[in-house]
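Before relying on records like the one below, remember that each one covers exactly one chain. Contacts with other chains, cofactors or solvent are not represented anywhere in the record.
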Amino acid sequence: MNIFISGSSGFVGTNLTQYLNNSIEATIIPITREMFSKDSFPSLDGTIIHLAGKAHDLKSRSNKKEYQLVNVELTKQLFDAFIKSNANTFIFISSVKAVADIVDSNLTEETIPSPKTEYGISKLAAEKYLLSKNLPLNKKLFILRPAMIHGPGNKGNLNLLYNLVSKGVPYPLGAYHNLRSFLSVDNLCFVISELIIQKDIPSGVYNVADSRPFSTVELINVMADVLGKKPRIWTISPLMINFITKLGDILRLPLNSHRLNKLTESYLVSNKKLLSAIKKPLPIQGNEGLIKTFKSFKSAV
């Protein structure tokens, strides 16, 4: 069995390559930039996993053209090659941000997409292209929308929060009770391997998230436990916090309205459709994945 992976050198790609090498008898073949630029691919057969893409830019420095080129055009090119090839399975890693940036309740596959960022808009455009094509009967298409992925070696908001906890900086938002869905990279790798191994899972769009969400306060408690420290959480009145954030907006302080929303908003992602399809529980349960991630942060210092 051949498994072709674009973006194999990235965070998810390196974890997935190692996972598949240990769980499936297959030849893992990276899809390189040269293959894209020359508009020529090897004799594709087996499974294609499309991970490569322009990631969400937290500092909003990327423009629409960059997202269109990387997230949409490259996806079109690879999928067109898949349709013409002998490969039987195409797995595209999209994002929950292709659906919504803010979630009022549980995000499901039935939620009508309305992305607001150029990243989310580009991911949705790629999804629409894939779904618009007539899929031959002998081929399968899986579009995965992962929640925030974490694991050893990743960089992002969890790293920033961990650094604050490690330095003993108090968390002043203990009065807020938000819940967010996360995704252990080990669970994502497990899901992808099941899509390859199991032959009766229907094509379609699937949300991918750990089964248990966490609040920011719970995250801080887990981080502090890994660090062997007592968590420093302040429960300040939301009225006072709102006043401080308004000052932050004016004076450009670290705590402003945008950052407050990011720290306290809820974002719940349902994985019921996926679990029903694979007919197995995810291997990483509870806070096991988060502990593994935070221990990797600790060892990296």
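The longest strand covers residues 86-93.
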